[in-house]
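Lab notebook page, bench 4
Experiment: in silico fold of construct C2
Operator: M.H.
Input chain length: 300 residues
Purpose: comparison with the prior construct
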Amino acid sequence: MANQVKTVFLLGVLSVLFVAFGGLFGEQYLWMFGLMAIAMNFGAYFFSDKIVLAMHGAREVGRGERTGLRHMVEDLAMRAGLPTPRIFVIDSPQPNAFATGRSPQHGAIAFTSGILNSMSERELRGVAAHELGHIKNRDILITTIAATIASAIAYLANMAQWAAMFGGQRRDDDGDSSPMKALVLALVAPLAATVLQLAISRSREYLADESSARTTGDPEGLALALGHLESAAAVTEPAAASPALAALFIVNPFSGVGGTIANLFSTHPPIAERIARLRTMAGRSDWRSGVISPRRAAFG
């Protein structure tokens, strides 16, 4: 029920943004942007997963391809009590991954080629189980819609910047400059998108980390993977198509961009804190450790 409320709220935010943007240009534009909002609501709910996969150039893995990866995901999905999600690969050197889909029955996991080529089997199991945790916790629809909204906000902000530069000197009935309003929107919209994602993303990562540990019985495996991912993200080209989509990934793809100020607005909790929590779990007697040898996985 809580997730349904969040989904309705996010779709409402999308509607308000589009209608408000139309209002900047006069009442005659309100109906057009209202129709756009309805179309975006429909698309965000039913097709947001397809949109984000397409934006990253993700290719679905066929039944006869990457059998080791497929068997691993099938095994973990069975352990988690989930249908096996579709598996996608993104051609990116940065090790990373994300889950998407509006329900467990429509779930998908996308791995970058970088993560498949560089991680040990133990680490990759932890990552895959983390993404399955998002599917099991039913937060992937919320996050995917949030990412779609953030992308839409970024697009609106870009339109507003052009409107501010080329909107001329037309003034509305109150005497305020429409280009000035557009400029304000261009400045405020990206911040609103960041706040929206911050409100959603951080706690869900902790929950997915815990779900991964319970599924694999090996919290240390994911802890090792997170350290690997953080180091790689700092020195490789971001895997995300845009910063608006960063919240989808297991670690922030842009953690190496922008320095300290950017980290203050990160959509992910600190990796060090996530690793510390996992290692605290690993130290308890109810967790198995080292169940899979840390050999290089044959998933590339």
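Observations: The two ends are 40 Å apart (CA to CA). Residues 168-172, 259-265, 289-295 have pLDDT under 50 and may be disordered.
Next step: discuss at group meeting.
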